[in-house]
Design brief:
0% strand; mainly alpha; DNA polymerase, domain 1; globular
Length: 109
């Protein structure tokens, strides 16, 4: 049988709030924090940043990837989905697990 996972915090917290926390707690220790802040700003401009963590699914990130395909170069497109798995431990520890990191299920093309 499966283990009980409390999703209360994931149901209260938006992706934007999780990204803000990631920016405060993790990014300052990064080798290139300015680049990471730029990526975060890109995510925060998208409608996904207003969604609750518990409601996010892999298909949401696949749609985001497809929308971003046109206006950005391939290297930028490849780096954006990697941002969320990096912030995953912050989201999991602070807000409760929301069935893994959904962006990991969106295939790179």
């Amino acid at each position: 049988m499966g283990a009980y996972v409390d999703r209360t915090e994931a149901e209260r917290t938006t992706l934007g709030e999780a990204l803000d926390r990631y920016a405060r707690e993790v990014v300052p220790a990064k080798r290139f924090p300015k680049q990471e802040h730029t990526r975060i700003a890109g995510w925060k401009q998208h409608e996904l940043s207003y969604r609750k963590l518990a409601s996010l699914r892999g298909v949401d990130f696949a749609k985001y990837r497809d929308q971003r395909r046109e206006p950005v170069v391939p290297k930028t497109q490849a780096s954006l989905p990697r941002l969320l798995p990096r912030s995953g431990p912050i989201s999991v520890q602070g807000y409760g697990r929301c069935s893994g990191v959904p962006s990991a299920r969106a295939r790179r093309t």
